[in-house]
Design a protein that fits this description.
single chain; elongated
């Protein structure tokens, strides 16, 4: 995606939605899931992902669990009950926004 600002504006919604579909995920797994689902069109960088994850955690939407994998700690993120509710709201807002944006983008200019 050429304009990363568009992706950044929906990053929290994307994270919450992915975590609602799976019990828990770690950062790299989230980046790879986004890449796979969008056939490589959306690339999440660590510089964008981790601040968003930390903000969602600080706001009470995510909880973390550290697990030792191959001798290294891996931090898994999962939704809190509050995060589940926020996910539903954010996804609905995003769907409504996309619907209205499509109306605007597909409209024919009126000749006044």
């Amino acid at each position: 995606m050429k304009d990363s600002k568009l992706l950044k504006g929906t990053l929290q919604t994307i994270i919450l939605k992915l975590l609602s579909d799976k019990d828990k995920m770690y950062g790299y797994e989230i980046t790879q899931q986004v890449k796979q689902l969008t056939a490589g069109e959306f690339i999440l960088t660590e510089g964008a992902l981790y601040p968003a994850l930390h903000k969602l955690e600080a706001d009470g939407y995510l909880q973390t669990d550290s697990v030792i994998v191959d001798g290294r700690a891996r931090k898994y993120y999962s939704l809190t009950e509050f995060g589940q509710k926020e996910q539903v709201s954010k996804v609905q807002d995003a769907l409504t926004f996309v619907e209205k944006l499509q109306l605007i983008l597909n409209s024919k200019p009126s000749l006044s």
